[in-house]
Design a protein that fits this description.
There is one protein chain. Helices cover about 80% and strands about 5% of the residues. It has about 240 residues and is mostly helical. The chain starts with a helix and ends in a 7-residue tail after the last strand. The model has no long low-confidence stretch (mean pLDDT about 90).
């Protein structure tokens, strides 16, 4: 088989390799994006759980303080009743001091409750924001999966069609070229070919000796790049 034939066949195969690689990237790229979004959802779920837990703990704390305030107020009412029943001035003054201390403590507790409720509002807002963000990302994931499935089905159909022509083109290589090609393809798959450009391997830019370029051009030998191992060919619009 002449050089033009082998080089032309390898060039065609290289274009098919690129098509295969692009189709596979369409599928794999979508799957990577899905996985990345799934991981982001896991993180967002953890953030939402944390926000909800913080709001719940603050709500429990506020309920506890509110119950304490109400109990203290009942205690003040009882103390005032006892003050009214005081038998002497000393007892009356004692209850008065206790009532004043209790009311002062309740004033501080009331301020704490007000501040705590404001903080609870902030925590609830954060939890709601986390919930909305999580829901939006979950909706995005569902849409992404649907579109990725469509892309995958289309790409797989194109791959099936391309494989038919791919095998036919491979069979056109002569014995030596086909043996080297098949050996390299098993290892490198769609990165097993590289054109010669300006006396260099276009895959790794290693300079190829002139005598080897002559053999590639004449079809006398099937040659792989000594540096990257790709099978070399002379493209139609070659620059040597």
């Amino acid at each position: 088989m002449g050089s033009a034939a082998n080089n032309s066949i390898l060039e065609t195969l290289h274009q098919m390799h690129k098509q295969f690689a692009e189709l596979m990237e369409e599928v794999n790229g979508g799957l990577r994006r899905i996985r990345g979004t799934e991981l982001r959802i896991e993180e967002m779920q953890a953030l939402q759980d944390e926000a909800v837990k913080a709001a719940l703990n603050q709500r429990i704390l506020m309920d506890s303080k509110q119950a304490m305030l109400e109990e203290n107020e009942k205690g003040i009412v009882r103390k005032k009743q006892l003050q009214d029943e005081a038998k002497n001035e000393r007892e009356f003054n004692n209850w008065r001091d206790q009532i004043a201390a209790a009311e002062a403590a309740n004033a501080v507790l009331s301020d704490e409750i007000l501040e705590g409720l404001e903080y609870l509002d902030e925590l609830n807002a954060k939890a709601e924001e986390a919930r909305k963000n999580l829901k939006a990302t979950q909706d995005l994931l569902a849409d992404m999966k649907s579109k990725t499935q469509e892309v995958r089905e289309r790409a797989e159909e194109e791959i099936r069609k391309l494989k038919v022509d791919f095998r036919k083109v491979e069979e056109q290589l002569d014995g030596e070229h086909q043996m080297l090609y098949q050996r390299l393809f098993k290892v490198k798959k769609f990165d097993s070919l590289a054109p010669v450009d300006h006396q260099s391997c276009s895959g790794c830019h290693t300079t190829i000796p002139v005598d080897q370029i002559a053999k590639i051009a004449s079809g006398a030998s099937a040659i792989a790049c000594p540096q990257c191992g790709r099978m070399l060919y002379i493209p139609t619009d070659h620059h040597i």
